Amino acid sequence: MATRAAREKNSHLNEHHKKILADLMGEEANMHCADCRRKGQATWASWNLGTFICIRCSGIHRCLGVHISKVRSIRMDMWQPEWIASMQEWGNERAADQWEYHLPDDFSRPAGSDQAMDQFIRNKYERKKWIRKASDPKIREPKFSPKAAAEAAPAKELTHAEIRAQMLAEEKEKKARKKAKKKAKKAAKAAAEAAANGEEASAVSPEPSETPITSPEPEPEPEEKEKAAAAEGSGGEEGEESGSETEDDDDDNDDDNRPASRAGSTLDSALWD
Ligand SMILES: [Zn+2]
């Protein structure tokens, strides 16, 4: 990520993920390696299997290939929301309920050699020797909703801020467009009046439609004002200027009768003052 904002967002999300992982690692079953059951060494994870494992078993997992196990370090890797969701969905206890469902109670896990452990892990995940089958009772629901993990709180906050900024921008754009339209209408009216009064109608240019919407001009150009005043003078319309402004305000307020009204009214004053 290139920008500072993006980096900060990532770091914020990463902190949140580390906190979730730390909480998960505090659970009894996750303190032991999911495969060899050694305690206090499960600092690695197979995120697609959703298990906490030790460094030795993580090496064996890597040899299985990523189509079976995707290994990451709890501490050193930058975790993705999807990986976190999988860890929350599974965890060592529920994963064992899936992968070791038919493992005999008196089964003794290989303790010593890496080779024996390698065989056990291959039997478990590659050959699916003890896996829960479709004919077996359905596995219990996960304790955590995977979706809750993906929609983690900090990300939500950022989204809110982004939505707000977007709303403000849209509001601003809308106001500017409206303003330009009114202005054009007003100028056209002045031109029509001028024409009706036989005054150099061709010289009164209708308000440019290409007025930049990002920087609306609340006040008409001075020369335009003069022309409008001249037109009004002969037309006998007093105070047309202020009258139309009031009309504008009323219109805008009507439009703001919706949830975004606060953002809108703030912008309103910024544009109109
Ligand atoms: Zn292990």
Keywords:
273 residues, mainly alpha, Annexin V, domain 1, 2 domains, 11 helices, 3% strand, disordered C terminus, binds zinc ion
What general outline do the C-alpha atoms trace?
elongated
Bound molecules: zinc ion
Strand content: under 5%
* Spans where pLDDT lies below 50 across 5 or more residues: 201-222, 225-273
CATH fold annotation of the largest domain = Annexin V, domain 1
Q: From the structure provided, what is the oligomeric state, counting identical versus distinct chains?
A: single chain
Rg calc: 34 Å
Please outline the major beta sheet.
3 strands, antiparallel
Task: Indicate the mean pLDDT.
Answer: 76
Order of helices and strands: HHEEHEHHHHHHHH
Number of strands: 3
How many discrete domains?
A: 2
Annotated CATH homologous superfamily of the largest domain: Arf GTPase activating protein
The number of helices is 11
Q: What's the N-to-C terminus distance? A: 40 Å
Q: State the strand order across the main sheet.
A: 2-1-3
Q: Give the helix level as a range of percent.
A: 55-70%
- CATH hierarchy class name of the largest domain: Mainly Alpha
Outline of the structure:
With 273 residues, this protein is mainly α. 58% of the residues lie in helices and 3% in strands. The chain has a 3-stranded antiparallel sheet.
